[in-house]
Amino acid sequence: MTKLLEPIKAMITPEMLQLAGSRVGLSPQQIEQGTALVMPLIATGMSRAAATPEGQVALMKAVDEADTGVLGNLSGFLDGLNSESGADLVKRLLGDDGRVVSSLVKEHTGIDIAPVMAMAGPIVLGFLNSQVRRGGLDTNGLVKEIRSASRSYERSKDESATVIREAFKAADEVRALKAQLNAEEWHLAQAAPLVAAAQVIGASPSRAKDAERELAAAVAAVDEAAAHAAPTSLVAALFADGAASISAGDIGDASGALRRASAVVGRVSAGELESYRKLVLGAAYAAAQAVKEGGFLGLGAKEVNADEQRSIDAVAAAIGAA
Q1: What is the 3-state secondary structure (H, E, C) of 198-220?
Q2: Which residue in 43, 87, 144, 216 is deepest, having the highest Cβ count within 10 Å?
Q3: 273 class by beta-carbon count within 10 Å (0-12 exposed, 13-18 middle, 19+ buried)
Q4: How far apart are CA 101 and CA 85, in angstroms?
Q5: Is 302 in a helix, a strand, or coil?
């Protein structure tokens, strides 16, 4: 624990850890281990955020808005813990890095840092707020203290600090991977599964309600595939916010878009091209199978009719999976 954050450790007693654990479904030992992880995570995340003027402003805003009252009533705060708020704090403090860091920490330690962040995050931010007010620190002063704390963790041989260092290193690799795509390429790679689904839906028009079910099935298929992808993969990064957040309405040439999207993924991450093609085809098949069509009064209806299959075959050809 660095000098800046060291007083926090003394504030949190074993009884408080037990209380916090009971509120977020973790044992006192898991909470204690999680806290040891979250401290270097917060310091490193804040230090990275402070690398830009915009990040410094956001950091100061987060600290300034923090509730210092939690420090004087820790038991009351912990008694009312809501584990769901932890995920919001991870996103707020770590931004896009949060997904990769959280996943890798859990992979290496078995600990989900989100519920731990629900406990430690407000305490750390409240403590920093009190330090800013007491010490009269401005943005530069706060950033200097946070960077000092981060450097201390970087030099530490402690196991928790090492896990966090490796997790952020992986997050940097994902950033570098994403940086190889320009905005248009990123959009194409994201939109391709929905473009494929739209082609299938259009090949055998359904009632509006059925078309919505078909699109929802495609979105669910993409999300499921992305959830099983490695956290450091391009696929996981592309669909990190969920396929429902992606719009494909601006893409006119569907076949051309599918070809280009496949080429982009092959260029940037050749090892993922096969799984990406499967994801795109999975979305197309999910749309086709969502509503049985054909037959009479439900008799003889097929999950994938001939028109839909021809469209799927065209999608497969466009992405090079035929």
Answers
A1: HHHHHHCCCCHHHHHHHHHHHHH
A2: 43
A3: buried
A4: 17
A5: strand
* 3 state DSSP class of 118: helix
Domain count of the fold of the chain: 2
Alpha carbons 105 and 240: distance in angstroms, whole number: 17
- Letter string b/e over residues 297-309, b meaning 16 or more CB atoms within 10 A of that residue's CB: eeeeeeebbebbb
**Distance of CA 22 to CAs 19, 119, 222, Å?**
5, 12, 35
Domain boundary among 155, 178, 201: 178
| pLDDT tens figures, 44-93 | 988 998 888 988 888 888 888 888 888 888 888 888 877 677 778 788 88
Does 269 map to a domain? Answer: yes
Range of the domain at 61: 6-178
Residue 233 lies in a domain: yes
The pLDDT of residue 270 is 95
Residues 127 and 188 in one domain: no
Q: Are residues 79 and 212 in the same domain?
A: no
Is the pTM for the entire model greater than 0.70?
Answer: yes
- Given 178, 206, 241, which residue is the final one in a domain? 178
Q: Summarize pLDDT for 122-179 with one digit per residue, the tens.
A: 888 898 898 888 877 788 888 888 898 888 888 888 888 899 999 999 999 999 999 9
> What is residue 241's DSSP assignment?
T
Which amino acid type is present at position 142?
L
Count of CB atoms situated within 10 Å of the CB of 270: 9
The answer to whether residue 1 sits within a structural domain is: no
